[in-house]
Specification:
alpha+beta; T-fold; 8-stranded antiparallel β-sheet; 8 helices; 29% helix; globular
Amino acid sequence: MLFIDMRLLLLFLFLPLTAIAQTVLEGKAQGTYYVIKYIATDTGSLQTAIDSIFASIDQSLSLYQPNSLINQFNEKGHVQMDAHLQAVITRSLEINKITAGAFDITVKPLVDAWGFGIHQPVERKIPSGDTLKSILPYIGSKYLQVKGHELSRTKREVTIDCNGIAQGYTTDVIGRFLDSKGIGHYLVDVGGELCAKGQNARHQYWTVGIEGENQRIIPLQNRAVTTSGNYRRFFDSGGKRFAHTIDPRNGEAIHNNIISVTVIAKDAITADGFDNALILMGVERAFDFIKQHPALQLEAGFIYKDANGNIQEAYSPGFPK
């Protein structure tokens, strides 16, 4: 059971009563927790292989690993991508285009300016307008170039941060690894980014509970789900709450009425890549976006405050009842 915020949002897993053999692996990686549940006739542990997957992805995508590929790019301006970095860059550029820049991995300088980067200040404060104005000319995926396996930039000041999509990608990689082992029933949870396949030990679809004013339990029928919101990393200033979701188009940290959005998609990298963009769009525009892009197979559920400060919920038409 994962408690995100007892006051605002509780995202948790309903654990099945074990009727047949179920293996559970759990630990910490990528600055968060992971829980992997699977059902298999082979009871041999996959822990070593899972640890190796996390280490490999961190060496590619982690800003906390000094010599990771992403840090090499940010320092030198070019890098030969491995399969992990190339997959994330490719999907990030696709999502950037379809969201008209609402999702953009070149947001790193803005994340740092607001104090949400890897080197966090003792006290966060609102950056000056001049500071944001000086950064914005270097924000934009149009300054990234991909030629074969090489990633480069056209402006020296451009740096990238893939944290808005990397955990979703990791979830999918672990799911595909379990597929490769012939495991057809599993639930992978990396820091609240989940993908599921098959059924649990009770021969039912894996389920996730979302609790706002009313609890909603949703089945994951070979789908993925992620949640993003302003309840994890934020600071208050001048009567406003500024969250770590930064709008790359204007440099502003989110301070709207959205508490969280839960996104269901065909895979976790897609759900993770779109959840922040949907928050920036707001409820109505987000639902319009989902309707206008049926090929994405997105569904979203919002928890937000109305004009009177009351907590409300809204769901896209295809969100599980």
